[in-house]
Amino acid sequence: MLGKQVGGRIEYRQIVLQVLNAAYVLQYRIDRDRLVILRVFHGREERE
């Protein structure tokens, strides 16, 4: 639950990770005892 809340839903979260000098944005949710990755964006990618 380190990331910030996304879309007004408490179970959907987003975190920015630095990997090999590039930023990646991961959107995820917690499903009981599992981490479910919903989307991965490159930090420079345009998105809504």
What's this, in brief?
By secondary structure, the chain is mostly beta strands. The chain has no helices and 4 strands.
How would you describe the overall organization of this protein?
The mean pLDDT is 83. This protein starts with a strand and ends in a 6-residue tail after the last strand. The protein has a four-stranded antiparallel beta sheet with strand order 1-2-3-4, with no helix packed on it. It has strands at residues 4-6, 9-19, 22-31, 34-42. By secondary structure, the protein is an all-beta fold.
Report helical residue fraction.
under 10%
Major sheet summary line: 4 strands, antiparallel
The whole-number mean of residue pLDDT values reads 83
Low-confidence stretches: none
Query: How would you describe the shape?
Result: globular
Distance N to C terminus? 23 Å
**Count of distinct structural domains:** 1
Strand order within the widest beta sheet: 1-2-3-4
List keywords for this structure.
48 residues; mainly beta; four-stranded antiparallel sheet; 4 strands; globular
Task: Outline the fold blueprint.
Elements: E1 4-6, E2 9-19, E3 22-31, E4 34-42
Antiparallel strand pairs: 1-2, 2-3, 3-4
